[in-house]
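tool=predict chain=A
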Amino acid sequence: MSSAQRLMFVSSPTAPRVELESFPIPTPQAGQVLVRNTHTQVSAGSETNFLRFGPQSYGLPEGALRANIGYMTVGRIVAVGPGVSGFAIGDRVTTTAGHASHSVVDITPTASIDPVPAGAPDDAAGFAALGDVALHGVRRAQLQIDQSVAIFGLGIVGQLVLQFARHSGAYPLIAIDLVDERLELAQRCGATHVINPSRENVVQRVQEITQGTGAEVVFHCAQAASILQSAMECAADRGTVVLTGSPPGTATIRLKEELLRKELKLTGTYESGMTHPHVYWRWTRQRNRRAFLRLLASGQLQLGPLLTHVVPAAEAPGIYDLILRGSAGWLGVVFKWE
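tool=predict ok
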């Protein structure tokens, strides 16, 4: 390949779009490595925020109209700059760079670059960043064996929350989504009960499954902020509602009936400042990513069934059109860089 390629997200008042463009293959400088990516993984919620609501909704500075976004890649190191230690040419790694065939990564003590263990396939390993998000939410919930859990939203993050909660010993595990395909996958990955709100009363079903108590921990993993009220209604007295998704917009909740009378705890998860371990919180982002990769390589995490689209990067514009139409017909999306 004489030049590199990348996906550019272009903001426009009428037709935001995604384009594939060429750029010169970069040369790593001191303290950097160059990774030739084989796959990049889509974080559907975050990335489509750019297309739906503009660059600032993705956290880009005011005035930015074009950006190479995305933050999950896997590939091999093909060049190493001066002063790099711990990584070598040929190493298979996952990073948090944008959608591109090549990525330059700074090597620092807290760099977002991790070795991929044998047994972890490229198409799944790149989801380590979302594995970190899901695992952090489960750690914040402090799950106990036989603690009841309900999960709203069975995208990749919700599916991983489900699997980590299962590993924590939680029971029952109640999966809630409007898309039957996602509920079926959740059952394959450990859900003990599934609920489709288009056909069933969610609060009533959660009460029945938990023998009238409600779910002791409820995870909000959906893209709809308004679901927070339903999540609180499903929670048990003194229960916890954990926000692990990144839903845009505003939620309206009842303060007295749920938050006050049930003494609920609302827990946000964002991982600011989680690059260094602390004696009171040892679970850094790197440690979470590497736990995800270890469990994936050992077969204890199932991502294969969740990958619905593993396609050449040239097909990206059509894939984003599919995602923007709704949640049906896709789940895990991966771009191949041949």
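The chain is about 30% helix and 25% strand. The mean pLDDT is 96.
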